[in-house]
Amino acid sequence: MKINTNKLLMLPGPTIVPPEVLNAMSFPVIGHRSKEFSELFEDTVEKLKKVFITENDTFIITGSGTSAMDMAISNIVSKGDKVLNIITGNFGERFSKIVEAYKGESIKYEVEWGDMADPKRVKELLEENEEIKAVTVVHNETSTGAKNLIEEIGKVVKDFNTLYIVDTVSSLGGDYVNVDKFNIDICVTGSQKCLAAPPGLAGITVSEKAWEVIEKNDKVGFYLDLKTYKKYYEEKRQNPYTPAVNLIYALNVALDLILEEGIENRVKRHERLARATQEAIMAMGLELFAKEKARSITVTSIKYPEGIDDKLREILNKKYNIVVAGGQKHLSGKIFRIGHMGVCGEKEILATISCLELALKELGFEIKESGVERALEVLGK
Ligand code: PLP
């Protein structure tokens, strides 16, 4: 099979994986019940805890981000349990679907896509509805390019007898997440976005308060039963089922790179690249999809101008080898999304903006001002 190895991946996941992380996958396969594996696994979990900024129990599971979302809900929710799902896009909606799949009752707080949830409304909904077992929110709604105020929502949720579940799949390692400070009871993430590791692993943190609920919950499911993961980790520093050993090597190196850069520096880099991208897009005369106050620093969503559609992405991909994402659900054909997360840097942003300018011209779009010049200005500051 022929693979084009010359693609610049500007997706909001999976993202560019640095060579040292890819190379780590070629380390020898080792037995997952061996002492070496336990050491590797514990080391990786400890590093992930530092990135989550938590003392809570943390697990690495074989599966994509959705498996950790599923794990969060299936260990908490039994038939008839109420969960408040904050929905600001496709992934917020996914949490509510998972709740319903486990026969829970999803109370939906729906926000217009492209905007963020209002923490005051979360408070009202918690006051209006009794016995809400958990609140879910997506930090960075990858489908819209808008983020939620997870720290502020955490302050609201703390005053209620409910669990706070946060999806940081496209923010951990890019935007600022602090599990302990934000009172997050269960936090989930995926390997293939801001962590800049290959797809296939997910992370989840579990607070003491969450364990109390999990212990009492009717057992639902088998593979993702958190109690089994806890038992194996405590006793052996292992997972109950065969893990993706070589992906753990890769994640370990990817986490080293994050800790070496430092979380604050990493967030600042993401902020700077987001500003350069977003200002360049606006200078060209294109419109951003997410509301200004809610704009993500890891992904930018852009409205297609009149008469332009996914043909733009096709030109970027086929002619310039730059891969950007389209819209999801009702936004398909209406927006496109540029990921600037993980190890993405100035050169990737400048290449993307330059080729976007060329592709737009090819499609007859009249560029207002040079996006490249604008990006250079922002990055040169
Ligand atoms: N949550 C968010 C915010 C995401 O962006 C994604 C994937 O794009 C997911 C959850 C689901 O992750 P996965 O596709 O790895 O299952």
UniProtKB/TrEMBL annotation:
One annotated GO molecular function: alanine-glyoxylate transaminase activity
Has UniProt tagged this entry with the keyword Transmembrane?
no
Q: Which cofactor does it need?
A: pyridoxal 5'-phosphate
Q: Where would one find coiled-coil regions in this protein?
A: none
Q: Name one Pfam family in it.
A: Aminotran_5
What UniProt keywords apply to this chain's record, in alphabetical order? Aminotransferase, Pyridoxal phosphate, Transferase
Does the keyword Transferase feature in the UniProt annotation?
A: yes
Transmembrane stretches, start-end:
none
Domain Aminotransferase class V, chain residue ranges per copy:
30-329
Q: Which domain of life is it from?
A: Archaea
One of its GO biological process terms is:
glycine biosynthetic process, by transamination of glyoxylate
Question: Which family does the UniProt entry place this protein in?
Answer: Belongs to the class-V pyridoxal-phosphate-dependent aminotransferase family.
- Annotated CDD domains: AGAT_like
Protein's recorded name = Aminotransferase class V
